[in-house]
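Minutes, project huddle
Topic: does the predicted pose make sense with nickel (II) ion bound?
PN asked that the exact inputs be recorded in the minutes so nobody has to dig through chat later. Recorded below.
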Amino acid sequence: MKDKPVILKIARMGHPVLRKKAEPVSDPMSAQIARLVEDMIETMQDAPGVGLAAPQVHVDLRVVVFHVPRGRDAQEGGAEGVPLTVLINPVIEALDDETNLAFEGCLSLPGMTGQVKRYSNIRYRGFGLDGKEFEREAHGFHARVVQHECDHLDGILYPQRMDDLSTFGYVEEMQKSFTQD
Ligand code: NI
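Predicted holo structure (tokens), as shared on screen:
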């Protein structure tokens, strides 16, 4: 009998696990990784969030899960969204120098938001749970989510990427003073 997925505790900013560089996964097809991913998906959906990295649930491995909800990315031509994706040992490269500035949030900084500059166009690759490597191009919000989640694997939280900390604050307050696209 398969165990039901469980909701894991999410580490918050300040916890040392969020500052570490995570270890590569040696066998993406192992039962341990399958179980971890199931629990990460359950945790992300419960939160709810668009992405989650293993260090956020106190696991020191290079694994992220994310999805882009339909319609979230309409302005970048990604209205269809991106289905739930498991990315193991990911590698990102920027396709050009274009960047964009937008607000981000993170389950490890509940209630907070801040403006972060990210590459607009990237290519990323990584392994799936089937042990196969795959590659995708991503733009706009999709590219942003992947950059944010993969930063977690290098011990980086979004405030460390911010150029202007005056745009960092509580979501409730920021919504009053900033108009988000
Ligand atoms: Ni995050």
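Observations noted during the meeting:
- The first helix runs from residue 31 to 46.
- The beta strands are 51-53, 63-68, 82-94, 99-104, 112-119, 121-127, 133-139, 169-170.
No decisions taken; revisit at the next huddle.
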